[in-house]
């Protein structure tokens, strides 16, 4: 079938029903069929994503409600439709909430009703994908611009947020949370409220030197400042709340994204704090994180337990050789002694560009030591 047709997965244990679906939907959709919930899940793990998933309610071993609930975990953007008999209406209504089902249809269902429902589901799927595309492009580009401004105005704050992003990305691979962009953007913008704080105050805090009451207040208020700034950006309301709770636990009734996002960001910033102390190391992340108070969830600690451990390949590199993901093994200072990047900083495209500009102006020397 043409790749331009929406992909539809039909699941039913009756071969005659599947054959009828293929025959009725052939001209308008790219149809794939599966004769059980298990086979349907296997189809979801292979090939391109499906726009719509249709399942019969009554099937042996795994009923339609259970299958669609599991399908939601595998392919959350796919729109789900449940086919039921009249006797199954009560259980089907309960399944709508369990599997976030878009619509349920009673059998027998006419071709016209089925096609119309699938077309509605395809439109819903495209809306969801368009929203995510917006987040991945326009919004991501805006966030990138903000972080680049942060890098120019407050390099030390940018370094903290860049380190936090590295931690968050590392953990998300294991946590497999949906909408991972929420947590990476929260890390990227977590320090934007620090723009008005003198660098010496932050460095004194990192070194655990005593601060005045006014200095302590400036540091304690920066998450709220950042949260207010970010909250003004459409679709970043949850990100703003994660940022606001980066140094404390969120309320128990807060959205789950805020609760776990705040835990992860707090853990990432704790590791960054240790990396900027005299230790310059996060060789034992789990030990560090288990001392944090309030206590962090164990699943967060496990997700970061191997962050940057066993990194032993150290070499001298010229600026032109630098690659995003490499980690600095020494402080980078200008020829006048101004700190540019600290040891332990993970290089990004923005950081490498800044080093290239400084090298062109003869403001730094190479090679530099990296891991």
UniProtKB/TrEMBL annotation:
Any single Pfam family the record assigns to this protein: HD_5
- The Response regulatory domain extends over 7-122
Q: Which domain of life is it from?
A: Bacteria
Instruction: For this entry, list what GO says about its biological process.
Output: phosphorelay signal transduction system
Q: Does the keyword rRNA-binding apply?
A: no
Which keywords does the record carry?
A: Phosphoprotein
Residues with PTM 4-aspartylphosphate: 56
CDD domains listed in its UniProt record: REC_HupR-like
Q: Which InterPro entries match?
A: CheY-like_superfamily, Cyclic_di-GMP/3'3'-cGAMP_PDE, Sig_transdc_resp-reg_receiver
Does Phosphoprotein count among this protein's keywords?
Answer: yes
- Record's protein name: Response regulator RpfG family c-di-GMP phosphodiesterase
**What is the organism of origin for this protein?**
Shewanella fodinae
């Amino acid at each position: 079938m043409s790749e331009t047709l929406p992909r539809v997965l039909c699941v039913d244990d009756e071969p005659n029903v599947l054959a009828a679906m293929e025959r009725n939907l052939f001209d308008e959709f790219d149809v794939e069929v599966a004769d059980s919930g298990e086979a349907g899940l296997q189809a979801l793990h292979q090939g391109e994503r499906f726009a719509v998933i249709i399942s019969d309610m009554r099937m042996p071993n795994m009923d339609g409600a259970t299958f669609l609930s599991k399908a939601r975990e595998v392919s959350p953007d796919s729109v789900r439709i449940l086919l039921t008999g009249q006797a199954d209406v009560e259980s089907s209504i309960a399944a709508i909430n369990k599997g976030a089902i878009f619509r349920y249809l009673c059998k027998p269902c006419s071709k016209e009703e089925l096609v119309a429902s699938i077309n509605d589901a395809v439109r819903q799927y495209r809306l969801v994908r368009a929203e995510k595309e917006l987040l991945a492009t326009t919004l991501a580009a805006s966030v990138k611009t903000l972080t680049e401004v942060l890098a120019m105005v407050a390099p030390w704050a940018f370094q903290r947020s860049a380190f936090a992003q590295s931690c968050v990305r590392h953990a998300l691979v294991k946590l497999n949370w949906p909408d991972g962009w929420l947590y990476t953007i929260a890390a990227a913008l977590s320090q934007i409220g620090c723009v008005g704080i003198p660098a010496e105050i932050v460095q004194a805090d990192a070194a655990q030197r005593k601060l005045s009451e006014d200095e302590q207040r400036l540091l304690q208020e920066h998450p709220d400042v950042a949260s207010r700034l970010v909250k003004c950006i459409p679709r970043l309301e949850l990100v703003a709340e994660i940022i606001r709770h980066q140094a404390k636990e969120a309320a128990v009734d807060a959205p789950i994204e805020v609760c776990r996002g705040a835990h992860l960001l707090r853990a990432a910033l704790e590791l960054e704090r240790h990396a900027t102390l005299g230790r310059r190391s996060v060789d034992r992340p789990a030990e560090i994180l288990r001392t944090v108070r309030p206590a962090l969830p164990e699943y967060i600690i496990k997700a970061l337990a191997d962050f940057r451990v066993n990194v032993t390949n150290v070499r001298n590199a010229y600026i032109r050789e630098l690659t995003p993901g490499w980690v600095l093994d020494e402080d980078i200072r200008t020829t006048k002694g101004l700190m540019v990047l600290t040891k332990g900083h993970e290089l990004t495209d923005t950081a490498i560009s800044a080093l290239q500009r400084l090298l062109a102006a003869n403001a730094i020397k190479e090679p530099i030591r990296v891991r």
